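Treating backbone geometry as a discrete language has practical consequences that deserve illustration. The sequence in question and its structure tokens are set out directly beneath this paragraph.
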Amino acid sequence: MEPYTPHGRSGVRKKNLTLSTKEYNKVTGTIASVRRTRQYLEDGAVEPSNDFVPSLRGSLGRDTEPSFIAETSFVRAPLNSRVVSGSSGPRDRHKGKGRAKDSLDGVPVETQEALILEDILFVLMGIEGTHIVYHPDYSAEDDDPLQGVRYVVSPSLDASLRDLVERILPLATYYTAITAFIEQRSHLDFGLVNHALCAAMRDMLKDYQVLLSQLEHAFATSPQFTLQKLWFYVHPTLHTLSLLYLLITELATADDPSATLSDSESASSDAEEDARNEALGLGGANLKAVLSEINKGSRLGMDGGASGIPVKGGEVLAILHERMQNMSGDPAARALYGVLMRAAGKPYVEMVQLWIRTGRLVDPYEELCIKESKFIDRGTLDVDYTDEYWERRYTLRDGTVPGGSSKRHQTGVPPPRTVGGHLPGGACVPPMLERWKSKMLLAGKYLNVIQECGIEIRRAAADEGEEDLSLQDDKFFKSIDDAYAHANKTLLELLLRDQQLIPRLRSLKRFFFLSQSSFLTHLLDLSHSELRKSAKSASLVKLQSLLDLALNTDIQGEDAMFREDLRVTMASSGLYEWLLKVVSVSGVLGGEEGETADGHVHEETKKEREKEKDDKKQILAIDALTLDYTVKFPLSLVISRKTILRYQLIFRFLLHLKHVEQSLSSMWIEHKTTPWRAPTHPPGAAAPSPADWQTDFQNWRKRVFLLRARMLAFVQQILAFATFEVLEPNWRKLEGKLEAGKVETVDQLLRDHVDFLDTCLKECMLTSSKLLKAYSKLIVTCSTFALYTSSFTKSASQALALAAADAADGDKAMAKRWDFLSKFETNFNHWFKVHLDCVQFYASSENVSLLPLVVRLNTIKSTS
């Protein structure tokens, strides 16, 4: 072993460094003189002189080196020399700094370089040096740790050395800032993506620390190691850490950019606040320390600023992606950010893979772009008229709706950041997943429905290559496509084959659209007396038993399987009043005349409410009668409460037509009786003159016949148009799509089903307020006219009795009859013309499907 080799180190290192004994002694002597000079300065010794250095070097010829005997740990653990022993107490930092700065004035450049080399190695580890100290304005308690520690160099340092040191010092600032970022973002509240990002940064800092260890070793062993060589070795690392520093600065400022503004605003009133706090007994260092911690927590994004959401999840990945795109011209930056993106995106990819493969959403920190509303469960399907279970159980956090719709769910969507414009946290979808977010949502949603049915999801295990997917890997996007196709195919087969969706829809068509509706005619005949009561007085139990009786006698085949799911209910309001209320809602709160018309609107609202109360008391059972249909999950996704409501509207529309048709047909049968057919004068008698009231009575009877025939023709034409021109063709289109397999996705199936019902409602004139108003007036006129059948018959019998008695007061009675009839004729003619004009207008502008109805209505002749 060489005489001056420290214990525990072999001579191989000396051989590798190709140092002679003389050079080796020179290095160790320089280090010893530096250490001893510092000891003298700290103990208050005299200023160093040039004569002192040779005296130290002269002692190197001996076999034992005093510096290494006194400080054996210096070579093995250099940082131990900076640790203050517990017995010596804290060092007077300011006193030591001042003396150290002054001491460099007379120190040779070689010694200054050795001193500053040792100092800068400590500073690069975040430890304050002797000649490189914290900036005077820096405060560890008040300054943001994510800004890094700022250092200044002793002004007495040689200018050439100071220039190099100031180039290297930003590395220490970057290192301290990144270390603080890693420490703070490793908190649980910042989520798995931030944890993975911090782990990747920590690995990079390990390489940085290895580099510092190698530099310290070179400093301790090589006399050729200079400040210039140190700059040469750390220059590439400076660029790397600067890129990391820019990234963490952007992540930190995205949390709450108003934090620095609030700090600066509060700084101006510090003196006044201190005085107030002292007067209230709230002053003191402890309170200030607590407030400082709160301020630091707000700057870290623990309170998330205005939005309350820290930067995490998809937002971190979006910022990383943007930086990678903006720095694409720098290969080193692109490579560095690519490594960080792969590492930070790994937990995100794992959450996505678990969701699209099993239908389970495991997102404890709300980082994924998909969220679950746990309060919405399968139980809501029985009473849900908005399809919340399907549409809002699992949704995208940014509010977008899958299927290319421009509609957004604004409820629960946080506002975007003021800096960058990103949605906060998991609501921010990484740019590379923007095109795939809908498929991701639907793939997991489909599998979740299958799981809710109690069916085990069997999926082949992932390949070894798929276990290491990243957000920028084409295999990852292919896996989303494959998972979406698999989930979609599985759920479609479940609905169409296992759950018998098409037979279910056929039964709905027969029950609600009245195809093969002999059961309804039978039901109306059986429940005639019950349906004449008010809606509150009618017995639902009796009506349900009569419906079961009608179904048992008329329904066969597939419909017999589902008749137990059909039940009678009573609506709370009339059909046309409810539809007019729905289609008249404009959604404008105020508008141009909102300020001046507020009082008028409130008055109208009160009148409408009063009218509704009266209508509820007077509504008949026949006007409120409707059917309901019960299905189980998962068919309740397709045949939901929202679609059942549409079926019920069409059923009530057709039921009312059927009922009015039946009433007018009964009136036609009534018109075959004696009062309507008997002649007004006895056989063989002379015919009455044209001016006689008996002739007038015969004309009156003909006008009643004609009005009844026109009303019946109108009702039959509307009924024929609705069934043969609207419902049947649209149903054939939907059935053809389902049977031919043209429906490729479950969402398309849901959309096609709702579109089919919406089309039927529109073509049946149930979505236009003008058409509804005219049609409702017409149909009410017809039903009211049919209610007066017995009155007309009684009046005709009285006229025949007067004619037989040859009474003279027949003229007055005929005038009353004509007046009563003319009211019906005038009302019917007026609204018939209005309705025909509206139908012609909409047929030529919006709804071409109404053209056949125009032809049908033109066949009904009007009386002049």
In short: The first helix runs from residue 12 to 17.
